[in-house]
Amino acid sequence: MLVLTRKWGQSIIIGDDIVCTVLGVNGSQVRLGIKAPKKLIVNREEIHQRILAEKSAVNEVNQNQETDQELIELLTQKFRYLKKAA
Description:
Shape: rod-shaped
Helix content: 40-55%
Largest sheet: 3 strands, antiparallel
Radius of gyration: 26 Å
Strand content: 15-25%
Distance between the termini: 70 Å
Structural class: alpha+beta
Number of helices: 1
Order of helices and strands: EEEH
Number of strands: 3
Number of domains: 2
C-alpha cells in the first residue's frame, strides 16, 4: 500500500484522470474531494461492501431459482416418461 501525506488543499493524482484533494481535516475525520470520470463509480468502503453483499444475495437467489427450474424440468420429464409407460 502506498502511503502519502497531504495537507489541506493538496491533491494526489491517480492515473491520468483522477484527482483526490484534501478539503478539510476535523479531528480524526478527513474530507476528500474526488474528481473522476463519470463512468467511474466512487463509493465509501461501507457502501461498496453493502453493494457486494446485495449482489451476492441476488446471485444466490438466481442460482436457487435456476436449480428450482432444473428440478421442475426433471420432474416433468420423469412424469411424462411414467405416463407413457403406463
